Amino acid sequence: MLPSYITLYKSGELKKRVNFLKEILKNCTLCPRKCMVNRERGELGYCKAPYKPVISSYFPHFGEEKILVGKNGSGTIFFTFCNLGCVFCQNYTISHLGVGEEMSTEDLAYIMIYLQNLGCHNINLVTPTHFISQIIEALLKAIEFGLKIPIVYNTSGYESLETLKLLDGIVDIYMPDIKFYYPETAKKFANAEDYPEVTKSALKEMYRQVGNLILNEENIALKGLIIRHLLMPNHISELREWLIFIKKELSTEVFINIMEQYRPLYMAYKYPEINRTINYKEYQEAISIAKNLGFKNLYLY
Ligand code: SF4
């Protein structure tokens, strides 16, 4: 099964999408922040991302879900900066402090090919939202160089519906790490009161595009939706609400990974309720909630 971006490339549609996305950068509304800055001229918006893509690292990742890692790893590319900005960010040196190297879209295309040549099972774009125009431009070049593995869109879920629609047929696997269900929590911890409303629409659109997860004979993901949720201390009710939403609006067949590795990093020390790791009881309760709601494809550690 070849990724559908090959079909879009052959029909010329992929090139059109690149041009649309590049236009958006001139008055940037790539994400729900809608800063309307001219990225092409070097103006910076909320995410602080410049025009050229900035990458902090790329490597075959063996710490992701087994269905992405397989034998040879998930070909992960970490993009610098972020459009959300959580106070507890585990990668704050990259997303808030801007550690990374600016490069051309051609270099980015070569990185994709390098990861494919290492045997990686997919190209895993981590925090790609604010550079998605440049990434798709790089993808166009990478296809010419022979890229043919699935694209994973590894995001916080804070996505504009208009931009997601431009990714239809390009992204094979959407992997949103959904966070806050309540607007007040989203405002407090990520300065994004509209996060729940925006992410609900984004999830529905992602699911419409790719559906439930499809694996190959070696249990490697080829296409579909993987929903992650980083369980936070004292916030289990947010998970419950999200799961009720997913059950009602998507399906209990959706692949769900409830992650237990929260650490109180960056500014988390300023918020007593999230200034600790989660405990065993909380994690077990989270898994029980998901099972009791009937979720069939839970990723268990
Ligand atoms: S991608 Fe960055 S500049 Fe563009 S709207 Fe989002 S936060 Fe603003």
TrEMBL record:
Q: Which organism is it from?
A: Dictyoglomus turgidum (strain DSM 6724 / Z-1310)
What the entry lists under InterPro entries is as follows:
Aldolase_TIM (IPR013785), MJ0674-like (IPR040085), Pyrv-formate_lyase-activ_prd (IPR016431), rSAM (IPR007197), rSAM_sf (IPR058240)
Cited PANTHER family? FORMATE LYASE ACTIVATING ENZYME, PUTATIVE (AFU_ORTHOLOGUE AFUA_2G15630)-RELATED (PTHR43075)
Report the cofactors.
[4Fe-4S] cluster
Q: Which residues form the Radical SAM core domain?
A: 77-206
Report what the protein is called. Answer: Radical SAM domain protein
UniProt keyword annotations, A-Z: Iron, Iron-sulfur, Metal-binding, S-adenosyl-L-methionine
SUPFAM superfamilies cross-referenced by the UniProt entry: Radical SAM enzymes
The answer to whether keyword Disulfide bond applies is no
Keyword Metal-binding listed: yes
List ligand-binding residues for [4Fe-4S] cluster: 82, 86, 89
Q: Which Pfam families match?
A: Radical_SAM
One example of the protein's molecular function in GO is: catalytic activity
State the free-text cofactor note. Answer: Binds 1 [4Fe-4S] cluster. The cluster is coordinated with 3 cysteines and an exchangeable S-adenosyl-L-methionine.
